[in-house]
Every structure is written in structure tokens, then in C-alpha cells.
Amino acid sequence: MLASTYTPCGVRQVAGRTVAVPSSLVAPVAVARSLGLAPYVPVCEPSAALPACQQPSGRRHVQTAATLRADNPSSVAQLVHQNGKGMKVIIAGAGIGGLVLAVALLKQGFQVQVFERDLTAIRGEGKYRGPIQVQSNALAALEAIDPEVAAEVLREGCITGDRINGLCDGLTGEWYVKFDTFHPAVSKGLPVTRVISRLTLQQILAKAVERYGGPGTIQNGCNVTEFTERRNDTTGNNEVTVQLEDGRTFAADVLVGADGIWSKIRKQLIGETKANYSGYTCYTGISDFTPADIDIVGYRVFLGNGQYFVSSDVGNGKMQWYGFHKEPSGGTDPEGSRKARLLQIFGHWNDNVVDLIKATPEEDVLRRDIFDRPPIFTWSKGRVALLGDSAHAMQPNLGQGGCMAIEDAYELAIDLSRAVSDKAGNAAAVDVEGVLRSYQDSRILRVSAIHGMAGMAAFMASTYKCYLGEGWSKWVEGLRIPHPGRVVGRLVMLLTMPSVLEWVLGGNTDHVAPHRTSYCSLGDKPKAFPESRFPEFMNNDASIIRSSHADWLLVAERDAATAAAANVNAATGSSAAAAAAADVNSSCQCKGIYMADSAALVGRCGATSRPALAVDDVHVAESHAQVWRGLAGLPPSSSSASTAAASASAASSAASGTASTLGSSEGYWLRDLGSGRGTWVNGKRLPDGATVQLWPGDAVEFGRHPSHEVFKVKMQHVTLRSDELSGQAYTTLMVGKIRNNDYVMPESRPDGGSQQPGRLVTA
Known about the structure:
Helix 4 (136-145) runs parallel beside helix 12, helix 5 (147-156) packs antiparallel against helix 7 (198-213) and helix 12 packs antiparallel against helix 13. The protein is α+β, with helices and mostly antiparallel strands. Among the domains are: 80-135 and 193-272 and 376-457, FAD/NAD(P)-binding domain (3-Layer(bba) Sandwich), CATH 3.50.50.60; 549-564 and 588-633 and 666-735, Tumour Suppressor Smad4, CATH 2.60.200. It has a seven-stranded mixed sheet, sandwiched between helices. Strands 31-30-33-34-24-25-35 form a seven-stranded antiparallel sheet. The chain has a six-stranded mixed sheet with strand order 12-6-5-16-23-22, with helices on both faces. A hairpin with a 2-residue loop joins strand 19 and strand 20.
């Protein structure tokens, strides 16, 4: 919480207990008590240890889940700062940065007026634009500004920083570099990164503005078009006057332009400058889909040449995604064709990408071109300053655009508050120009560095090449020689990324330290696995696969449009077929089996052996191969009716919540039965009678290569299991349709407490 008086931390008695009070609260608490009022103070429940987090040296930690106790519903800011500081600030723009600044200034007793052209612009094209990532550095700044607001943001957001995150190859889905954003946060006593709906975040901030400033503080439908600086003839003081689009004028001591990348305040302040088109258009949407490894992985960036794809958990079975493609700006798609174009661009990539696209309704896919602006070195002139995107619009690849705006707001509020306090509350005596220049100087280096990192991240993500020859020789690419840039780039990132993340997430900690209490929260701990497994997952890709709560399928997929044309399921009246007819890009025509502990037989369609997986090819033997889950060597006993056995085994294990995680010596296996007809895995023929371990993404062919039926090993989260999948014939299935609504993510907490599911982030 911001405060104009800085004193060491104090100790207070609350409800018969001794608690530590943050330094910023000591003076307000004393003033409030002198007025006979009972203010908010953090109540720290006693705790013997904090096993989830190492206490950083020099930082005082409060018990996790520290609560705010209020004997009076008014906050410290309302009780103490009602006398005000005598300075009025106009904020142009009610985006995230503008509203955070308004909250911070109002709590310091400033008079604030926020003008916004259109509060619904956040939705974009009249639709919901999706969540925003609020990383640890921004959450810490929010806590320093207003613990109540920060607590609500933490409560409403979905935690992604408690899991593994990182970069993957777009084609194969294999990990390139993993990020640990959890330990850089908790080592400095910071909250762990969340994702929250933009609309929800804006509503939280807007309510706080009205709580502290009154219902008229935010004026919607008011577009600030220009400003002038002049001396007020009545008071003799200098002031800045803004003019709205409707001709009305308003005066203040300070004007802050928080009106975004197309800022009119910026244009007048530094002149006309052209926004930089990044070279990429961006498709975005939210899918009703649960990735196989959602319990372990929070977000991923899939890399490619001239295109890349970002996916992030937003809670309760929904995933937000962004697909970037290099092309000229200003492009449009015919109505109803965005998903089709996305599948043209990304359809050959791994399932984690393709399934997210297919699981998103066509009407929920949005498109926009990505612009940024080069860094500038003039954020302020006279009594006018820029904040957020109006000063430093950056590409979204680091998720730091909104976070930098929140940090800006904190710093500007601190500087103005300190300046007024230094003049004993005489706002007219404040050197406003000097204060704004100090704000600029304190922010410009950090913001410019992160701006540059975001640009470099975009460049790296879109110029990534997996194999030598990609883009100029298919023959060379087919040799599968790792691209030198990929090898060198990975080495550089492995060496530098930990320190980069520590600086990005924790580099502003010392600035906010005087106004917040460092702490570790048990609620921020990983919820699906013990924290001690972080190093294992960071260093071992196979451990993530083995520990995912997922079914393994051996499945052939083909274009759902073929299914619609052939009217495959018309005779059965399948609801899935009807849905597919409405949107063929949301469904797949599939034939396959769930692999389980009992061995499943693979054979030719119509064979007397009654195979669980029937391949429609005369080159396939009646008893051609077996697939199973378990140890290497001979498969467990199997029967000709193993389809039912495999399904029953999978269903039973899922119901127990222990389904599909593998022991260190277990795996999924395929054994050729020595028919001499041949079995191919990833284009290579197995020796007759050989057994091979399968991995997600493997392509399996029986009887001949190439085959018209290629079966793929696929992981699928247990909540997406479908009883309509058959190994005998193709059925049309909706991608992402949840079948098992009773699934509960296994709880890893040692106390055995109940699992709190991720909060759904929707409009």
C-alpha cells in the first residue's frame, strides 16, 4: 500500500495477537487510531514453517493466505487521506494502466478524473478478447498499491506460474526450452503469475476507483482530443487543460496519457510517429479443451518458421491461444473461414496446436494485426506524462505489456505523492515537470530492455527452424540434421534464461519493497505435483509425459468433411455427426483404441481373430501386432475381445483418479507378431517379432508403407475420453468434448486437503 510517510515496520496487537505491520501502514494506522477509527491491518496466522518456499534473505515473510481483517468497512486510504493532497490529476484512458494509476493516486488523497472513449473497447469487434497475463512483478506492484485489489485479482485469476512453461517445436511438440517462473517469484516473496479475464480485471479496478473516488470518477464516452498548458488567472498557478471530443474542457495540475498505442496525448506531446507493424497477424480464441499434460504445464509457445502459436491455461477446462502468421497487414477472411485458414497454416503441426484450433467455435476466433512502437526517450513534457502503451507499446511475446503499465502507475503515484509530501501538502509548490521527468528516468531503462526482449522473442519464435534445409531444400530437411541456429539458440537460452526471468519478474522488487510485505502463499504451490518434482520436470521431458493424467490412444484420423460427405453416422443418428455437419473444422473422423494394461490385438478387418483394432488393408495379417501398457518384454495375456477389456481397464483406472500416470519402468509398447507382413514406426520397419516402446506423436503403419491408414500415438486428458471411439470403424467425434465430468485432479498436498480447481476465466 502506498504511503506518503516512510517508517520502519511496526508491530501491532490485533485480536489479541501480535502481528507485523508493513512499513507503509504504520503511519496511517497511527493516524487512524488518533481519529478513533479501526483500520485494516494484515492478520498473519502463526505458522511453524513454509515448506513451499525458501525465505529469501533480508525479506520478512508473512504466513500464507494472510487475510485482511476490518473492524470498520472503510479502508486506511478512505480514513486517513480524506484531507487530500490538493493536486488534481486527469487520466486519459481507462485501460489497465490508467485504472491502476487512478486507484494509486486516489488512495494518496489526489483528486482524480478518468476520461475514457469507450469502456467496451476491451472486447474487440464487439467480442471477448480473452484473458491477460499478470506476472509476479505486476502483482507485487498491485499489492503495494492496494492489498484489497491485489487480493481480488489473485483470487479471480488462474495460476499458471505454478507449473512448467516454455518453448516447443511446432511440428513435433517436443520441448525446446523450459521456463521456471515459480521459483524466481517465491524466492523474492512475490505472488506467482496469474491469468485473468481482461474484463474482470477492468471491473475490479473500476470498482476500486469508484470506491475511493466516487461514482463520477470514471467518465465513459469522453474522448480526450487535445491539451494546452496555461496559467490560471484566478489562482495564478500553472495548469493543463484538456478538451474532449464534444468540446468540453477540464483543467488539472497533471495530465497522464494512458490512452494506448494510438494515443492522442502522445501524438501532441512528441509529434506524429508511425506505429510499427510487426509483420504478423494474430488469430486468437478460447477453446473448451484440456491438454493431456495440463496438470504439469501452464503455457507453451510453439515455434516455427514464419509462424508461431501460444497456448495458456485459463482455468476450468479452457485454453486461450494465439496463432501468429507472417503476412502483410490489413488482411481479412471471408465470413466463417477463419478456422479453415488457421488449419491451412497450422494443420500439419502437433496435436496440442491442431486440437486447440478445432475445439474453438468459428464465431469465437478473432483476428488482428500486431503493432508496436519503437522506444522513445521523451515520456513527459511540462505537466503531461505518458504511461503504458502510449509510451512503450510492445509485442505480446513476453506477456509484459500490461505488467509494465502497472509498474508505471506505481512509480508515478509514488513520485507524485512524495513530491507533494515534501512540500508539506502544498501542491502549487511542487515542481511537476521535475517529478514527471524523474518518473520517466526511473522507468525508461527497465521498460526499454523488456521492450527489446519482447521484440527478440517474437523474432526468435518466428525464425525458428528445426532442421537444416528447412525453407530451401526438402531433401536436406529430410536428413533430419538439427539446424545450427536451433542448437546454438537453445544453448544460449539455457544459460541466460534463469537470470533473465529473475530480472523480469523480480527486477522491480526493491522499488515496491517499502510498501508491501514479502510472503509465500501455500495457495501458490503446485497443486498437481509436489514442488520437489520441479527439477525433474525441468530436466526430463519423459517425466512430464509419464506423469500426465492422460489416456494413450492408437488412432487414425481423417478429414471430418469426408465423414460429412459420406454421411458415415447418418444411420445411427449420432449427435456428434450432426454437430460435425454444422462445423466440420471442429470434429475429426477417428478410428482407434485406448491402450491399456491388457494387450489389444491389431489385425485385418473381418479377421476371425476379432482384433480390437481392425485395419482396412489386405496386406495386414489376421493377427498382426499387439499394443499394451506396462513393462517391456512379453505383453500381458490378451483375448480376441480385448476392445471391451481395454476400455473397461481404462475407465476403471480413470475413475480411481490414478489412470494413466506411468511408473519409471513402465511404458506403452507395440509388438510385431512375426507375420512377415511388416510393421513401420515413423517410417522405419521393425524386425519381425520385435517390440518397441511408443511415444506420443509416433506414426504406426501395418502391412505396408506408405499405408492409406496411418495410426498415431496420441495422449488425451482423461476428461476427454469418448465411449464413441471404435477400433472397428470410423466415427465422427467433436474435438474437446468433455465426457468425464466427474474427474477430480489428483491432490498432491501432503495434508490431503481438497483440490481447488482452476477458476474459469470468461467474460
